[in-house]
Design a protein that fits this description.
alpha+beta, elongated, four-stranded antiparallel beta sheet, 20 strands, Adenine-n6-DNA-methyltransferase TaqI, Chain A, domain 2, about 350 residues, Helix Hairpins
């Protein structure tokens, strides 16, 4: 094993992204500062590493194995000479790029900021390939778990729609339907059935890493060592991703960009029902969901025997999803523990 100190500008070529031409059915993924933001019929880069250039995700590191479109909120990079691209995807994750950011209003990194940064690099491409191969194996297992989770979630959602949207529930042929509502079902509102509770602000620099997930409107955004909500519950996006719905499986901290529903008012029927509610942005400046408006949205509740039958089928699916999520989390922890040790030579492959 041999390492050498290099400036990033000597090891990498850097390119600016461009404003995308979005197309819903486009062949190519469009990358923004924190991952995919849509699709396009065109691409402007081959397989590359993508860096968040500006804003909340300044310095975020993503990878695309296929041609893609890089938006103007990104910087694209590929290694110079005979080096391994995937190695550099992992190498850049060990460099705190955001810590070098300039910009007055919001964090910003530029070519001139990135190029002088120095880091230790494995000289031989074969070494680089061995390291990226080990780390990619973890990522492949995590990706496989996520695909399985998506399939299970799709199966659960299809069952909900079959029973409660298409109204083809067990015994439906014997139930009279009046104005689209089966006899014996009750109508209520979100405010009456599962009132929304405001999350509480917890800035990134105030979080102490721990076993408690921190939820924002885009899902889990970090961890903390204290919980605001103790138990499984539903999280609803309030600012940003308006109306996004998440099931938090364990105690968690919902920040002020979300609402949550008290655990005593949560069940899987409610979780899937909320995914079919039309939540409309009620804030002109920043996308937002007004709680009074959300509480006024109507819900139709089936009788208890149908709820019990639905949960009896959904709970085994959700248990399997929970197992896969825990496995993916443990794999990610192992990968993140190994990453710096491979890069600085403490662990050789």
């Amino acid at each position: 094993m041999s390492l050498e100190r290099k400036k990033l500008g000597d090891a990498l070529d850097l390119f600016n992204g461009k404003k995308p031409e979005l197309a819903e059915d486009g062949e190519f993924v469009v990358f923004g500062s924190n991952g995919t933001i849509g699709r396009s019929g065109k691409f402007n880069h081959p397989s590359s590493v993508i860096l968040g250039r500006v804003g909340a995700y300044c310095g975020a590191v993503k990878f695309s194995s296929e041609p893609f479109w890089a938006s103007d909120n990104t910087i694209v990079t590929r290694p110079k000479g005979d080096q391994d691209l995937k190695y550099w995807y992992y190498r850049l994750q060990t460099i705190p790029l955001r810590g070098y950011a300039g910009g007055a209003a919001q964090p910003l990194i530029t070519h001139s900021i990135i190029k002088p940064i120095e880091t230790d690099v494995h000289k031989e491409k074969l070494e680089q390939e061995r390291i990226s191969g080990v780390l990619s194996a973890f990522d492949d297992l995590i990706a496989n778990n996520r695909r399985r989770i998506e399939l299970l979630e799709e199966a659960a959602l299809l069952l909900y729609r079959e029973w409660f949207v298409r109204l083809r529930f067990p015994g439906c042929e014997h139930v009279e339907i009046v104005n689209g509502v089966p006899s014996g079902w009750s109508q209520t509102t979100i405010g009456e059935h599962c009132p929304l509770v405001y999350g509480k602000a917890l800035k990134a620099d105030a979080r102490e890493p721990g076993e408690v997930d921190v939820y924002g409107s885009s899902g889990v955004v970090g961890t903390h060592n204290k919980a605001l909500v103790h138990g499984s519950a539903i999280v609803v996006g309030r600012k940003g991703n308006v109306g996004s719905i998440y099931w938090a499986r364990r105690k968690f901290w919902p920040i002020d960009t979300v609402y949550y529903i008290a655990p005593k008012n949560c069940d899987y029927f409610t979780y899937y029902a909320l995914q079919h509610v039309q939540f409309i942005n009620t804030d002109v400046a920043v996308p937002g969901l007004n709680r009074d408006f959300a509480h006024s949205r109507k819900m139709t509740i089936p009788p208890e025997h149908l709820l019990e039958g639905f949960h009896a089928q959904i709970e085994p699916i959700q248990r399997q999803i929970g197992v896969l999520e825990r496995q993916a989390s443990e794999l990610a922890k192992a990968r993140d523990l190994l990453l710096p040790r491979l890069m600085d030579g403490r662990v050789e492959v």
